[in-house]
Amino acid sequence: MSPLLTYSPLQINEVESSLVSSEPQRRRRSPAGAPRPDLPVDDAISAWSQPLAPVKDLDSLARRYPSRKLTLDGERKPLEFYGTQNQPNAFSMDSLEFFLVIAQYFREALPLRLILLLIACQRAGGRIPLTQEEMATILDVSRTKTSEALHTVMSHGIVFKVRRGVYQFNPPYSYRVAEFIPGTEMTGEFVKVEQHSTISQIRSDTSLPDLVRFPSLDHMRQAIEGLRAERAKERAARRLSRAERTEEGTAQ
Q: Is the pTM of this model over 0.70?
């Protein structure tokens, strides 16, 4: 049997001291994680879709984005829109002023129904893959009436023809940014087309009418005011005619 070794406290302290470096200890850096994307300064829609990053100093954040207004908001809630299984939560961005003007301008229902159909059939980027035959079938009207209504809508720069069976909604009036295309397998395809790129492409195309390249509803507002003035004169003339007939009956 080997003899039992014993050490004095002094010897133990000397061994422990030899295991510790005399140089000052430095804190080890933790491995860097995945870089977080910066907020786009001029693109609020893209900023909304970016993951949130922790904020350590509000002052430095304010200096980094001087044109932004810093607010404290609650947790983001998912959007909910009525849709089908093939297009869940499908929606477009629409101008409320555009809806207000066309509701006053168009006196017949078919142009308004056609505009709603074109908005609903937009793909990402505002393209509308519909033929006139398909429009007439969906709206349950004749091809002739559909063609006349489409010509009226296009004359105001609301929609223009790209090629046969494909139309483009003018982005400032209505625009669909993205869409999810279901695939045949487990995953599908997410397509996104920024509005500013579509607008730039339209405005650079000199073959398009100016009302398409630089959309405006002023001519429709002027027509609305003119129609109201004309109808006011007609109502005043009818009131005057009734008053004159009433006076003639009283005189007799």
A: no
